[in-house]
Amino acid sequence: FELHDLALGRSRVCAVMSWTGRLLGSGWRRVGWFGARSSLLKSATAIATAYTVSSFVRKRRAEAFRLGDADKLTHNVYTDHKLSKRELRFLEYASIEYDDVIYMSPMDFIDSFTRDTPRERIYRRVLKETDVKKMLGNTPPLRKGSRDLFRHLDQGGLISYADYIFLVTLLTKSRDNFKIAFMMFDDDDSGRVDKEEFMLIRSLMSSLRSTRNAKKQHHDQCQLDMTEFSFVVTHMQDRLFTGSDNYSIAFSKSEEEVKREDTTILLHLFGRRGRESLTFDDFMVFYDNLQYEVMEIEFREFARGKKKISPVDFALMVLRYTILDREEYAEYIDRMADRTAENQGVTLEQWASFSIFLNNLAQFSTAVRLYTNADMPVTKAEFARAVQCTCGEKLADTVVDLIFAIFDANDDGKLSYREFLAVMNDRLHRGLKARNDRGWTWKDFKRCVINEMSR
Fold first, then answer.
1. What pLDDT digit, counting tens, does each position of 308-338 carry?
2. Burial grade of 42 (CB within 10 A; 0-12, 13-18, 19 or more)
3. What are the pLDDT digits (tens) for 259-270?
4. Which CA distances in Å does 161 have to 51, 167, 196, 313, 444?
5. Do residues 360 and 425 lie in contact, with contact meaning Cβ atoms separated by under 8 Å?
6. Comparing C-alpha atoms, which of 428, 392, 425, 364 is closest to residue 171?
7. CA distance 58 to 56
8. Which of 104, 244, 317, 387 has its CA at a distance of 20 to 30 angstroms from the CA of residue 154?
């Protein structure tokens, strides 16, 4: 909830109390002395209900603030739920606003995967319709896609939050997993995906609305006409049971209109008129180009103009974004420095093979489940064979040696899969594992009502 709703809530409760008072007054006037007791009982019930509802709203708002409203204020964003880690990462790097919706540029997206912090800026760029049309007009079609597409577009494109999730999925899943995703997009089983089918899945993701320029409606009157009562009841139901509050902030476009807006990804995949349809092979061209571009940018950053990255730099890349405390992190780096020589570098091709292995980490984990369940260490040969069987890529002996230099705690030539998989899973997802926070439910509301009425 927005902070200004705290003050707005008092106004609404006051309005309900005013309406209750009118009921009480009308009860005395209309039914006279003989009906006064019945009217008084009904009015008292209405007052108790209003108090209970207002108490529930206050508690929910306080809980919502504790669960992340500070993040919403920091990023000037409106949502009806707690911001997830992925949403926070998107908001940290997104540098564009258009029609009160927050977008990334293509380079913002690359930065979110290859930089530890976003580039310095004061505010997001607020674009006009003419700017957006000109920007999107420069989007190349898929047949002209390349391994430097995002770098070429730089700041000249729009990537919505739904696009961002789609791209993140491509970068963290294997080809086999993406084949399943393609089948989900292909609603009519034609072997091709058109724009409408793609939009159907894409529309399940909400946009992130900016509140910096949104019009906020404040209510200072503590009065309520009887004709407005139906609206207030409906509005309170929305707030209590769906968490939405379209009454407090007015946006220029509806959520449905925003989801239909063209973006760089839509135009690149389906053409400017949206009439193109894509086969799985077409999608894989885009998938491969994206994978290579992100992997190459990260490699070039650590290579510093050289053809190889050093063993310590390889360890830094492997441990990047992992959830480790300082002592654990330092221990891994020290192992690598002590056990390797400077000439044991990793080439771009070898790093590419390792990146493909990371995308197949789920399949690899399944293949070695027997070892992990029994907590059995494995040798380098067993490790290399498991990798090749699950992802079809043979890791270079140098890469295998460096992995064991990091994760072989006893330096006995054996690796603990459990520790290795936990750290690599963090690396794959850039430390952005999804939360399982439980939202407010009807049971929570009933418990709150019982607690208040029993006081």
1. 999 999 999 989 878 888 888 999 999 999 9
2. middle
3. 889 999 999 999
4. 39, 10, 18, 32, 30
5. no
6. 428
7. 5
8. 317
